Amino acid sequence: MLERRYAILGTGALGGFYGARLQKAGLDVHFLLKSDYEHVTQHGLVVESKDGDFTLSQVNAYHDVEKMPRCDVVVVALKTTQNHLLSQMLPHVLKDNGVVLVLQNGLGIEEEVADIVGNDRVIGGLCFLCSNKLGPGHIHHLDYGKVTLGEYAPDYQAVGNTDRIQQIGNDFERARIPIDLAEDLLLARWQKLVWNIPYNGLSVILNATTRELMADAYTRKLVEQLMYEVVAGAKTSGRTISDRFIAKMLDYTDKMKPYRTSMKIDYDERRPLEVEAIFGNPLRKALVAGVNLLQISCLYHQLKFLDAQIRELSM
Amino acid sequence: MLERRYAILGTGALGGFYGARLQKAGLDVHFLLKSDYEHVTQHGLVVESKDGDFTLSQVNAYHDVEKMPRCDVVVVALKTTQNHLLSQMLPHVLKDNGVVLVLQNGLGIEEEVADIVGNDRVIGGLCFLCSNKLGPGHIHHLDYGKVTLGEYAPDYQAVGNTDRIQQIGNDFERARIPIDLAEDLLLARWQKLVWNIPYNGLSVILNATTRELMADAYTRKLVEQLMYEVVAGAKTSGRTISDRFIAKMLDYTDKMKPYRTSMKIDYDERRPLEVEAIFGNPLRKALVAGVNLLQISCLYHQLKFLDAQIRELSM
């Protein structure tokens, strides 16, 4: 097989980092940019990374998705708050036998993408990455970076690994991006929410780092209770997450450096929050199964209030 | 019967206002002060009120509870965060046949006071008052002012009205303070929580006025859901609050001027929050009956975190 051509939709802290790594490893990568387009066309992409700094002085940068070549793998690295643009974007950039790789947080995004491109052309990716954008085309990779890849099938049936995710995984590994393959994408999504729901939510609502949330006995308890509600939510999807997994997440967070969550960074930068992907979709999935996750619902309503204030400011 | 002598423990926005009104009506009132003692001794109490401004140039001010005369009615107008002081204070200032009137927010405070002074010497009072302290001995009464009085009996048995609450009610009415008599103190306490729990909690957590909370569809919904949880809590105490009462509270708040709740004022002034009286005690009462009020619990844990930050700052 020929080498896969990659499109990166959303060249920010996440898409810019992974895309730059793929290009540096010799792959053919095409970047869609918005506000940073002019700057990146002239100066390329700069990546400061704990694994070694590098600059890509020449990148295939596009301001308009219609000018991009059709690609084998279209990486969706936008914020989910921009996903209403996908139905217009994806048909322009996806090869007939290409696949969309959704590198976003939250639940149910693959279903939305499958509605646009078809059920057999979607892969989910969960990123465990700590990365910021310092300025136009200037990315700071602080820590972590692993991507968990999982094949999407209708109703999130677990279909195990496929050749194509193995091949994409190989490309990522060639780019020194650690890869896990998930046999059950939906389980992996719920597992990631065990961390994302308490820490993303409470860090914004209480203006706190992960360390502050863990140091206080009351928020630590609330974090744990929220994790158990996520587990109850997963159960409504027929997915089992063990108590040991919760213990592991708490322990892992205890040992992390004080961490500003992605939602807290969005909030501090006054960007719309990914409330629906991370909170709304899991809540609704559980509710359809007759389970009301009350504490997550409490956070959801609080975050919707804070998000509306941001959106009002930015109008 | 001779005229009743009043002690006011805690001469702030609430105690100062009611005490000043009682003295202005000719009653014998004795004020306990802390930081404002020197100032009030020299300059008296100044009340700016929507019902008419007045100054009391001479007041019976005390810095030390042991120097106060024993009184017929000891009004507890401290913040509940100061209630650990009551076991030392009350025995000094309460006449043998006197009664303690608890003018505080939250649940279960009368029980704590009864443990100190005896079951037959406690009356509860619920204040619907909007009042701030502008400076030492300087009170600004903005709106409302009604007090609901209710007799306390062990286990909050509803005992109806008694002569003594009627008499105290008469004193308050003489001071132009509107009075209601509650036949069931515990029901009145739970009813007040229907308002206090959502608005006090969310105004602090989300840095919002009542109007902002009502204008946003999501927080409005959360307010309503929290009100229903309070009703579920009341039910565990054998008290019934109707849906109509919730509708009335929502409607009443819609029509209010934008209002900074008492807990929000405390938070903004970096004073310890009354989290245990307003949230912790109702939660524990319901939990003993086997009911976990999950959304109130979520607010409780969030407020404990914010309260700990304040207490750390003020140490």
Automatic annotation (TrEMBL), chains A, B:
Q: What's the EC number here?
A: 1.1.1.169
**Chain ranges of the Ketopantoate reductase N-terminal domain:** 6-153
* Keywords in alphabetical order: NADP, Oxidoreductase, Pantothenate biosynthesis
Domain called Ketopantoate reductase C-terminal: residue spans: 184-305
> Does the keyword field hold Zinc?
no
Summary of the function given for this chain in its UniProt record: Catalyzes the NADPH-dependent reduction of ketopantoate into pantoic acid.
What is the name attached to this protein's record? 2-dehydropantoate 2-reductase
